[in-house]
Model the fold of this input.
Amino acid sequence: MKKIVVFLGAPGAGKGTAAAAVAARTGARHVSTGAMLRDAVARGTPAGLEAKSFMDAGALVPDEVLYRMVSELLAAAPDGSTLFFDGFPRNSAQAEKLGELAAAAAATVDAAVMLDVSEATLVERLGGRRTCPKCGAGYHVKSLPPKVEGVCDKCGAALVTRADDRPETIANRLAVYERSTAPVVGFYERAGLLKRIDASGPADAVAALVEAAL
Ligand code: AMP
Done:
């Protein structure tokens, strides 16, 4: 069997940071649908062309685009592997569909990790966030700075502020989260799979809490 752990939480809650850190320690694979979409946009693939305008507006990309991506990567994952999903599912329809896609690929959703933080912290984290456009690594100007300012520790590329981390887009993404993604928490709670984590602390403390919960 293949195992899936879903990371939930608002934009800026630290899903990518925690998933990457725990994946590096446990051998799981970190899968960020947002990073895959940004890569598709940068390469100008058909999925990227379809996704771009939604992403620029801070809106959700149509479900069908995500279902294709997720079913391909589940089919390609080796038996016995564990995948950390960061950014999928993002609405109730996607949560239901993930169950079907997983079953078709001999995979199960084993846990859903919910990273809880206040709205003030989310806005602070998103505003200071810097991202590597080449390898997808995430940084924060104050809480998780790179060794050399503006340069990715992992691959040396120049860091950027994501187009959708601008203040006007941040507000829309938080509204989309409340409307579409927050109900996914209830979905996994009813399934008995939810693990709530206090994600207000520093990155290494949050990663330790997540690892202990899994
Ligand atoms: P993220 O890096 O997870 O914040 O995702 C960045 C953007 O990619 C989101 O604001 C959406 O436009 C798009 N996106 C990522 N994952 C999904 C998803 N599961 N469903 C729809 N859109 C998504």
In short: Residues 57 and 169 are 6 Å apart (CA to CA). The chain has a mean pLDDT of 94. The chain has eight helices and seven strands.
